Amino acid sequence: MDRGTSDRKFDTKNEIAAVRWSDNRVVSLITNFEDTRCFTKVERRMKRGKQKVDVPSCVVSYNKYKNGVDLFDNHMETYFSSIQGKKWHWPLFVNAFETSLVAAWKISKFFAPEQALDLLEFRRHITIAYLGLCVPKN
Length: 138
Hints:
This protein is an alpha+beta fold. The protein folds into two domains: about 5-65, no CATH class; about 80-130. The protein contains four helices and five strands, in the order E-E-E-E-E-H-H-H-H. It has a three-stranded antiparallel β-sheet, with no helix packed on it. A hairpin with a 3-residue loop joins strand 2 and strand 3 (about 25-30). The longest helix has 22 residues, at about 90-110. The protein is elongated, with a radius of gyration of 22 Å.
């Protein structure tokens, strides 16, 4: 596929569209929100200088609104615990715990920006609080 070209398929029964657009790499999206027939022009650098290429509107919308998801995934991966268990449910528990930890950190930053901790310091405070509950005080 040449840069700026796209393919799309539309399922009329379920009202879902699949779009494949070629940029530096092929970008594939599935949407039930955007019209896949609408295109906008964006500038891309090529060997011959800057050139305008067509971009489907669903790709533009994704790039516009993805920041929160990408940041959350980035924060999840930064300090993800590597504790492994032998039971099938353990990864589900660890992922749920990590998700709630990052969400709690983002909420605390939102409501108390003047007392905001970085993610590592926040994790340390939570860990110390949980360890304090478990350690007997003699």
